[in-house]
Amino acid sequence: MRIVIALGGNALIKKGEKENYSTLINNIKKTCKQIAPIIKKHKVVISFGNGPEIGFLALQNELTKNKVPPMPLDILGAESQGLIGYPLEEQLINSLRDHKKDVATILTQVLVNKNDHAFKNPTKFIGPFYTKSQADKLKNKYQIKKDSNRGYRRVVPSPKPIKILEAKTIQKLLKTTTVIAAGGGGIPVIEEKGKLKGVEAVIDKDLASACLANSINASVLIIITSVPFAYLNFGTKQQKEIRKINLDKIRYYYMQDHFPPGSMGPKIEAAINFLQNKGKKVVITNPENLMKALNDKSGTIIKKK
Question: In this structure, which of 176, 187, 234, 246 has its CB flanked by the most CB atoms within 10 Å?
Fold first, then answer.
């Protein structure tokens, strides 16, 4: 069975933890031990989020711009694929030594529409916080918006993924190899006059993972997040966990705005996109309940019917 596992940021850096190398490695080790049993039995592609990491790379750009020429956002996205992909690949190999299964990280480009409305209305916050005076100085260079009451930050477009450009290569590798791909949602590229061109944007990891899963004819999409279930009325007294649900029902709840756009919303949208195409099952859960959820004994299980 072909499975795509989308690792959320919590599988790499948990809330409240120091965002440093040792923490990253320790969390990756734990995550690899939890997903290794799945890899031993199935053909697996692993994707991951890169929110904190690309933010740090953007900050490094900003702090060293007078000494080192800054790189555009698509290049930073490529850097983050290696930054996370390498230790993830290394720890997976360590976890699978007795199974003798190859692991490879694929630098992944994702095609987006150059006319996507997101380019006219950037909403994705990245990088450091700025004061009002700092933001005023940067407004001619970047698009800056207020991020709640925490300060001002750069915003970039978050266009919808259309196509995973390395999908055929990934399918071929899956015959013998566990593949790490579409890290951070992939590197966003557009087509201009028949040629590819990177753009300053960040693609949602879960939407890209659904696109990837459909591209390689996967049966199951597993979305790893910080909570054991998706919930209705999340954060209220009426909060209720969703266990088993079909596509029509989850689409109804999605249209009723039960899932916030900054958290569970993209995950549910990704689930809908996957199941509307060739997908058979979506699992949403935390790392601790992964194996139970794969066997329909925990987590949120979404199927077509």
Answer: 187
Q: Is the dihedral of CA 204, 55, 260, 120 positive or negative?
A: negative
Say how many Å lie between the first and final Cα of the chain, rounded.
20
- Is this prediction's pTM over 0.90? yes
* Nearest-angstrom CA–CA distance, 61 and 1: 42
Name residue, tokens 């692993």.
Answer: 46
Tokens encoding 266? 């993209």
Token output for 135: 């933001």
**Is the pLDDT assigned to residue 52 strictly greater than 80?**
no
Q: Are 5 and 220 in contact (CB under 8 A)?
A: no
CA separation for the pair 300, 104 (Å, rounded): 29
- What's the token pair of residue 12? 């790499």
Catalytically active residues, by annotation:
9-10, 124, 205, 267
Residue 190 has pLDDT above 90, yes or no: yes
Q: Which sign does the torsion angle of CA 223, 178, 96, 42 carry?
A: positive
- The pLDDT score that the predictor gives to residue 148 is 67
d(CA 144, CA 142): 6
The amino acid at residue 194 is G
